[in-house]
Amino acid sequence: MAVTKTLETSSLQIEIASGKDSSGNTTYRKKTFSNVRTDAASQNIYDVATAIKDMLNVGTRNFYVADSSTLVSA
């Protein structure tokens, strides 16, 4: 049985500093930006993430792209 994977949605996530833990280490939370074009080039997504990071007044760590796909048996 063949299965087809179809990319449905993408979102950009940026880890944003949210405070300190009991050991003094920085803690992070993810801020999600939905409705990223599923055909967007990785470089373009990175450029947008960098522009957002530069506008924020807090530290950031990593950028992520979260994809959601459907699986359909053919």
SSE diagram, text form:
Layout lengths: L2 E18 L5 E11 L5 H14 L4 E14 L1
Antiparallel strand pairs: 1-2, 1-3
InterPro entries: DUF1659
Organism: Clostridium cibarium
Protein name: DUF1659 domain-containing protein
Overview of this protein structure:
The protein is of the alpha+beta class and 74 residues long. The protein is built from 1 helix and 3 strands. The protein has one helix at residues 42-55, and strands spanning 3-20, 26-36, 60-73. Strands 2-1-3 form a 3-stranded antiparallel sheet, covered by helices on one side. A hairpin with a 5-residue loop joins strand 1 and strand 2 (26-36). The chain is elongated, with a radius of gyration of 16 Å. The protein starts with a strand and ends with a strand. 5% of the residues are buried. Residues 2-72 form the DUF1659 domain. This is DUF1659 domain-containing protein.
Number of strands: 3
User: Major sheet: order of its strands?
Assistant: 2-1-3
Count of all domains? 1
Strand content: over 45%
Radius of gyration, taken over Cα atoms and rounded to an integer in Å: 16 Å
Number of helices: 1
The span between the termini is: 7 Å
Q: Which spans have pLDDT < 50 for at least 5 consecutive residues?
A: none
List the quaternary state of the chains: single chain
The residue-averaged pLDDT reads 95
Question: Largest sheet, described in full?
Answer: 3 strands, antiparallel
Share of helix among residues? 10-25%
Secondary-structure-based class equals alpha+beta
Coarse shape: elongated
Order of helices and strands: EEHE
